[in-house]
Amino acid sequence: MNENDAITHVVETMSRVAQWRINNFDSTSPLQSESFKIGDRHWSLILEKRRLNFVIILIPEWELSGHDPLIASFNMRVVSLVGGRKTLTRARVRNKQVNYPDRFVWMLKVPLTRRFIIEVEFLDLKTAYPNGGEPRSIWSEGFIGNQNAKAVAAFGRLLSESIHTDIVICASDGSIGAHRAVLAVRSPVFNSMFTHNLKEKELSVVNIPDMSVEACQAFFSYMYFNNMQCEDFLTYRLDLLRAADKYDVADLKDACEESLIKHIDSENVLERLQTAFMYSLPRLKVYCIKYLVKFGKIFDIEKEFNAFVQSADRELVSEVVDEIISAWKGV
């Protein structure tokens, strides 16, 4: 092997995906990737030959991330980059518990090419507490923390117990009481409603017909507490994004965007992309395009992508296609 044929390898990550790209591979010595981070956990990969078969080892870097047992669900695959893009083999791991200092080992039964990608895409990753307790996903931590719980609880009673409310919020299937002063401080749109001689000021009623009362409750809970349960946040995330955009609650809109970035996969990426375009979420749009183009997921959803090209906004489609052409030119 001459100098120009030296083995090169690099790991690229986003959201829940890691791709280890290896060029000019030979089987003479084991390879270990650089450390990479998915969620709040550090990982590395090893590729080595054991007798007649290659083995891929996914290593939790316990010393960097802690020793609590993990319960992992993920997909792994090897994709050849020689003569086009072709998946050579794949593996599915579901709810597999691994304890310190163990690791995940996958024995391959196919030959490897000179250029390929080893991909790991996590579906979920839970921490299993050694002293018991329900395992919790690292992607379902509390939405936003509060440091003064007593003050927050007391303030929250204003909403939950309708104490001295002076405005009624009419949702699609019910109503809740709220306070003009709180809404005006949290939202410039509400502030404008209550400052100018609009019908909301005169009637002391705000109609939000495109949200259920449960989604409204989650939205106003955030307005009052700057916090909500993760389960509620994930359940009403798109409703919350729409409300945050409509009423200009910038911090909630940012939180929704960050959460959507963390939950990009092949099944939702095109929907996420259209959401990013509709609500002007530039970071989410960048991550979706990166997932499709740089990480090659567009090849996994060709049928769905073709339908997207036919039906989506022309400006958005043009931007995605331009990114694809630029990526192909750079290959």
From TrEMBL:
InterPro entries: AtSIBP1-like (IPR044714), BTB/POZ_dom (IPR000210), SKP1/BTB/POZ_sf (IPR011333). Residues 165-232 form the BTB domain. SUPFAM superfamilies: POZ domain. It holds the Pfam family BTB. Pathway: Protein modification; protein ubiquitination. CDD domains: BTB_POZ_ZBTB_KLHL-like. It comes from the Eukaryota. This is SKP1/BTB/POZ domain-containing protein. It comes from Artemisia annua (Sweet wormwood).
